[in-house]
Specification:
heterodimer, A: 451 residues, alpha/beta, Urease, subunit C, domain 1, TIM Barrel, 2 domains, 22% strand, B: alpha/beta, Rossmann fold, five-stranded parallel β-sheet, four-stranded parallel β-sheet, 13 helices, globular
């Protein structure tokens, strides 16, 4: 792919890696950042150079997604490595960590190599594979974690399922200590959650659905913390969704446990009351709306309540939660167009992540600097032992950047998604905030008007 | 009652539901005047049925499919009978012997029925919300929810309201006590909405493990939440104090699963059974209703089930008239434009 030459004028650069938050001009030549300063373009010499007006826009280092389901190999009808990478680029992500619940699962070096080879074919963005904690994701015997690390894995997870057996979790954490890579647990006591589609509470009762209580998550986080406290290792909590999880993680950090955590954009912005089918987020119990039971709202863990959202936001602001990760979980139409009980868990996350997060900024619930921090530096820190620390927006480096517009309207239309998964509970909603341009390794990988 | 000579002549009168009632998904869709219309029609139809003046051709040319993904006696038979007495063609469908057996999705089954000119589908499904899902995808065919998961059973609630109104002139201020497996009960959920709408005070009695947890948590409240005004009492004798209507529910063991907090029917019945001894704590003239099917000797004693306090056979009887009223109103009544 050809390296790009581009100028951006008068743009607010927010770069947590270099601690920059300034309105500046930036010049990129042949993919490399050659100048960052005020008024670079006032006496224009190079008339061939495309200069974008960055006024009121934000330039950030490329986002890192710690939690992407690419479905490839095995379920290529849902997503392929290529479509997932392109969708990620559209969402501003230049690095994504692929989840290992594929078919075959990523429990062997060959499958890791397949993912790396396939992703390198396209010269788009960087894909960092996560390997299985247990062989076949069956929860019985830990995988060959040393081999998986050597093959290129940056962490381990049986995501989709928890690591249920406490002894297996203990061993995995001990290996994690050797390898310096995180064990990423999907914390769910499945006996308590009963594989339910919704949070347990007023909404599940009103809808007559079995509920997935917060305790099913909290109990396993508490177990994992106790194990990590004794046996070491790096524990990473995937998609934290409850108030109590924030308290538990905070306490563990204060005790010196090596623990990190992520939260998804949908758990920060949507609640279980959306399932009542009214105007989004209105708690009207008296009668259900025509859009009640929307299976596109079925995610695991389930959408919680406003109380949980406030705690998660506090956790993000205070650094208790390190990263925002999408848990992009694409599905085919037939997996979702059915009853809530039958529908697959998962939401299309990559292409709506920034827009959802921008809505928190517009509601004064989260600062834009915090949003960008948790999508870049915060996420990078979780996998810091396996990747070189990103250089950020710095003279002499290849451009790995995303240009953001916080204030323009973006109407979410599922069929316009690059992802193969075209369904979203946000269908037809107009929100402020979108990605305009993404450069990875010095090349344009997404440009708003060219798609 | 208006001077109506036969069921057939209902068509000369302008009975109709609110325009919003295209499908009947739950009782929350019905306004008080819709309930009045349904009950007025039910009374007329029931009187003709009682006089054996049953068969009409009001719904001639209409096709009704009963699509049952769960077993049923009362609901299915009474819907089928209601459709046939009104002259509609009624087709019964279930998993056995249809493409549901071959793995056809609910969506495709519904679209097939719509393409085959079905006017109305009466659906029972083990998944809560299944009728809502169907209504989003069907433009021509109407839907009546005959029970979805734990969520709703609106026609049973209509029957229960109507039956109660036959015993009491005004339901306002009365006390209804529902005893038993509330957690898994779609009848309880629809009855709670329906009886509260008519001003009845609803009280629930069951072990905590058979109650929705939300009822036990009063920490947050929302004015529009119908469960805010429901009271809970774990002691059956206290619960029945001053009760006008007593409704025991069956323990839905098929939904309880293998590991549940339910020890035994024997112990349950010793604490929560409605029988001669426990019913003494209710008002002397209190009526007993049960949506069926009953497990006599568990939630209700045989003596009470078949006593003169029991309205259980009447509930079944009114079930036919209620469903005839609804089928008529949904397939014909709404067509009036005046």
């Amino acid at each position: 792919m050809t390296k790009s030459s581009i100028g951006i004028k008068n743009v607010r650069i927010i770069d947590p890696y270099n601690n920059i938050d300034n309105v500046l001009d930036i010049l990129i030549e042949n993919g490399k950042i050659t100048n960052i300063a005020e008024d670079i373009f006032s006496q224009s010499g190079n008339s061939n150079l495309v200069v974008i007006d960055g006024t009121d826009k934000i330039l950030s280092p490329g986002f890192i997604d710690l939690h992407t389901h690419l479905r490839d190999p095995g379920e290529e009808h849902k997503e392929t490595i290529e479509t997932g990478m392109r969708a990620a680029a559209k969402g501003g992500f230049t690095t994504i960590c692929s989840m290992p619940n594929t078919n075959p699962p990523v429990d062997n070096s060959t499958t890791v190599k397949y993912i790396l080879d396939e992703s390198n074919k396209f010269e788009l963005i960087q894909v960092l594979p996560i390997g299985c904690v247990t062989k076949g994701r069956k929860g019985m015997q830990i995988s060959e974690m040393w081999d998986l690390k050597n093959a290129g894995c940056v962490g381990f997870s049986d995501d989709g399922d928890p690591i249920y057996n406490s002894e297996i979790m203990q061993t995995a954490l001990q290996y994690s200590e050797h390898l310096g890579l995180p064990v990423i647990n999907h914390c769910e006591d499945t006996q308590l959650s009963k594989h339910s589609a919704v949070n347990e509470g007023k909404i599940s009762n009103r809808l007559g659905l079995s509920g997935w209580p917060n305790q099913a998550e909290d109990i396993m986080i508490a177990r994992d913390i106790e194990l990590a406290k004794k046996y070491g290792g790096h524990l990473h909590i995937a998609h934290a969704s409850t108030s109590r999880s924030v308290e538990l993680i905070n306490d563990a950090k204060n005790l010196g446990v090596n623990i990190t955590a992520e939260v998804t954009p949908h758990h920060l912005t949507m609640t279980d009351s959306w399932l009542l089918g009214h105007q989004k987020d209105t708690d009207v119990f008296a009668s259900l709306g025509s859009e009640a039971y929307d299976s596109n709202l079925k995610v695991n863990p389930p959408l919680r309540t406003k109380t949980d959202i406030y705690s998660l936001l506090t956790g993000l602001k205070e650094g208790i939660i390190d990263a925002i990760a999408t848990d992009h979980a694409p599905h085919a139409l037939q997996d979702k167009i059915t009853t809530l009980d039958d529908a697959a868990y998962g939401i299309n996350g990559l292409e709506t992540a920034f827009t959802l997060l921008a809505s928190l900024y517009h509601q004064n619930m989260l600062d834009i600097v915090d949003i960008i921090n948790r999508l870049t530096l915060g996420a990078a820190n979780v996998i810091s032992n396996s990747i070189e620390r990103p250089k950020g927006i710095k003279k002499g480096e290849l451009a790995d950047i995303v240009l953001l517009d916080l204030n323009s309207d973006f109407t979410i239309i599922g069929k316009d998604f690059i992802s193969k998964s075209k369904l979203t509970p946000l269908e037809g909603m107009t929100l402020k905030g979108k990605v305009i341009l993404t450069l990875a390794k010095g090349s344009i990988v997404y440009e708003e008007n060219n798609n | 009652m208006k001077n109506i000579k036969s069921i057939e002549s209902l068509s000369e009168h302008n009975y109709k539901l609110s325009n919003s009632v295209k499908n009947l998904l739950d009782i929350d869709q019905l306004e008080t005047n819709d309930l009045d219309t349904i009950f007025t029609l039910t009374e007329i139809i029931d009187s003709f049925l009682t006089n054996n003046d049953k068969k009409t051709s009001l719904l001639k040319g209409k096709t009704i499919v009963t699509l049952f993904y769960e077993s049923s006696t009362r609901t299915r038979v009474s819907f089928e009978e209601a459709g046939k007495l009104l002259g509609a063609d009624v087709i019964n469908m279930s998993g056995n012997g249809t493409s549901i057996d071959k793995g056809e999705s609910l969506l495709n089954t519904c679209l097939t029925l719509q393409s085959a000119h079905t006017d109305l589908i009466i659906v029972r499904h083990p998944h809560s919300g299944a009728p809502y899902f169907m209504s989003k995808h069907l433009s021509k065919t109407k839907i009546i929810n005959a029970g979805d998961g734990w969520h709703a059973h609106p026609t049973q609630a209509l029957i229960d309201l109507y039956t109660a109104k036959q015993s009491y002139d005004d339901l306002k201020g009365l006390k209804l006590v529902i005893v038993g497996d509330i957690l898994h009960s779609r009848v309880a959920r629809s009855d709670i909405l329906g009886f509260q709408k008519l001003g009845v005070n609803v009280s629930l009695c069951a072990p905590k493990s058979l109650l929705p947890t939300t009822l036990l948590d009063k920490s947050t409240s929302d004015a529009s939440d119908p469960y805010n005004t429901v009271s809970v009492e774990y002691d059956l004798e206290k619960a029945l104090d001053n009760a006008d209507i007593v409704m025991p529910l069956r323990i839905q063991q098929e939904r309880l699963g293998e590991v549940s907090g339910f020890p035994s029917l024997r112990e349950y019945s010793s604490r929560f059974q409605i029988n001669d001894k426990t019913l003494k704590f209710a008002k002397p003239n209190a009526i007993v209703m049960h949506p069926g099917p009953m497990n006599e000797g568990v939630e209700i004693s045989s003596e009470i089930a078949h006593s003169d306090r029991s309205q259980i056979e009447n509930q079944v009887r009114y079930g036919v008239a209620i469903r005839m009223s609804l089928l008529y109103l949904m397939l014909i009544g709404g067509d009036f434009n005046d």
